[in-house]
Amino acid sequence: MRKSFIIATIMHLVVACAVASLDDIRVYSIRPACFAYKFTSIVTKKSSGFVFSLNHLSGTTHFVEIGDHVGPYLVKSYEPDSKHVYRKSLKAYKTVKSGSLMLEDYAGRITPLILNEIMSANGRMVGLVSLETGRKQFARQSDGLVLNGSQLRVIEIKDNTARIFNGGVISEVQMISDAETETLKRMRAERACKQAQDAELAREVRAQKTEQFEDAFEKLAAAGAVRRPQKITWPTRTSPMRFVYGSTCPMPVAYQVLPIRGRLPSGRLGYQPMTVPTRFRRYHSGFSIFCGR
Question: Which pTM value belongs to this model?
């Protein structure tokens, strides 16, 4: 009896916490639904094939290749294409990459994603915002999401509200009010002001450390522990001026292999070796004329 009472109390507290966590969540937008992923870029691999970038509604980015899985979909194939786009800066049309990425779901249905286009879908999606953190996230009906540290699922989207499943309880989340919108704006403005103040404080700390370093250097230089940098005196030309008619070009004569951080062929960030020239020698081709003084 005591054990069952403890279990019932714990379940009641869990449910109460789950319900309370939705008190700071509001609906801020309801719009026609779109596909969960957007096809955003193509990267050609050095060996062969492509790496594709897909952005999810939650804001996460996935890098996939043909045959990889992303969510409930299989990246089936890619059909390359190109299109002419008018560039105002160039005042001309330019050929840019395009194409369709085919995703296959568990039922075998194929969904084509066109590069840099949002694909529409049936139904509606809801935009939820946290009054505590100001974080926003879109979700469609039956989609799961994480907001305020809680695992949520959208059960139904109505005209001005949304029914959300959280911890065994279904709650109806209301549309955000004008007063709450103004509160979020003030919170974001205060956060931006705080970030600017922190950046200014960091600059002052760096300037103070630089000044302390210069003072310490002067003391060490006065004691003879370190040498002050000597002022450079540029030499005066005493020989006749020389004019070279022809071509001149620098040629690398020394190299160094350095690790460069960038996008790997797999799509992940990492280090790869790159040969960098460190010393050059200038070669001339032509003839020269010396002018007397």
Answer: 0.52
